[in-house]
Write a structure and sequence with these properties.
Length: 349
């Protein structure tokens, strides 16, 4: 007996007249363990995302039926946490790979639209002082309000002629500038910089640098590693420490800065699409930049909801650039050097 086959239009599934939705997958039909193993997040977190993004994902069109916000969010989470549009992922929620791709695009843009709501520096002095106290309690570094570093995320080659995205390893990437607090919550994220730019150049051209140079956060500083230039608002390690106080300063800075390195490992572990060792994002630089930012928004939302971001299986230590590549990064800023020497004398002697 012939079996009738229904061919489903992907666009018809995504957008629908009258907001009727095609619901092949129900959260209530699966266990919490299944949701965590396949989508990386618990049931209540997914329900929160449906509430947060639902209006943006329920847009009226001239089509007849639409994929529900719930299913679109699951499709996007499946991609973010696995890094691929696997057939089994689409089969699990009853949509094609083409539909999954459109779902990821929709959810990504909805998250990017809300980035400033979840990624920001504290706005009041009380919160700023609390940041300083937390960092000081970690390793004795005073005045710190954030940790800055860059991470490369591999992308497909934009085109054969464009070498601006080729990093020093010969791979195409985006060099993403981030600042986090002591919990690993991201306070600044800039994901649009081409991979050919070194970390210090990214920071110099960033809106973050503009804010600090304008004196927005006086009597405070960020901590960076040897890939950045010393500034009055950015403390970096001494390249060749000589005194016991200088060694103590370097050890305290390294112990504190390790938080953002751990945060990067966690991001790549939870959101496999960002893990360059697993492959590259198969999108344009602009779309890849938005996907990275969307994952950062989800990272911060999970922290706000009390999720343990460190509980994901961690990869080994992140590869660090050879030290000799940054010998020229010693400070030529006399005011910044004076600030660092006063810090060492006052707190580490």
């Amino acid at each position: 007996m012939a079996i009738p086959i229904t061919v489903l239009d992907c666009d018809l599934l995504l957008y629908g007249r009258g907001h009727r939705t095609l619901d092949r997958f129900k959260l209530d039909d699966v266990t919490d363990e299944y949701l965590m193993s396949v989508y990386g997040f618990p049931r209540q977190f997914i329900y929160y995302l449906v509430e947060l993004l639902g209006a943006s994902l329920s847009r009226p069109t001239q089509r007849s039926r639409a994929i529900s916000p719930e299913t679109q969010i699951l499709a996007a989470l499946g991609f973010y946490t696995s890094g691929s549009f696997q057939t089994r992922m689409g089969d699990a929620i009853g949509i094609s790979q083409a539909s999954m791709s459109r779902c990821v695009a929709n959810v990504t843009e909805a998250l990017v639209e809300r980035a400033s709501q979840f990624i920001r520096f504290p706005a009041d002095e009380t919160s700023m002082q609390a940041l300083k106290n937390e960092f000081y309690g970690l390793a004795g570094m005073p005045g710190v309000i954030g940790l800055v570093d860059c991470i490369h995320v591999a992308i497909k080659a934009p085109n054969a002629e464009d070498l601006s995205y080729v990093n020093r390893k010969g791979l195409h990437s985006l060099n993403c500038l981030m600042v986090c607090d002591i919990r690993g919550a991201l306070m600044t994220v800039e994901t649009n910089w081409p991979g050919s730019l070194q970390d210090y150049a990214v920071l110099q051209q960033s809106s973050l640098s503009t804010q600090f140079e304008a004196g927005m956060h006086k009597e405070s500083w960020l901590l960076g590693d040897t890939s950045f230039l010393l500034r009055t608002w950015l403390m970096t390690p001494l390249h060749i420490p000589e005194t016991p106080a200088e060694y103590r300063y370097n050890r305290a800075l390294s112990a504190t800065h390790n938080v953002i390195e751990k945060t990067f490992r966690t991001l790549c572990s939870r959101f496999r699409c960002l893990d360059s060792s697993k492959g590259a994002l198969q999108y344009s630089p602009e779309k890849s930049s938005h996907i990275i930012l969307a994952c950062c928004v989800l990272h911060n939302i999970s922290l706000e909801h009390g999720m343990d971001v460190w509980s994901s299986p961690m990869t080994g230590p992140m590869e660090q650039p050879p030290e000799e590549e940054y010998e020229h990064m010693e400070s030529l800023d006399l005011d910044a050097d004076r600030v660092r020497q006063e810090l060492i004398l006052t707190h580490f002697s």
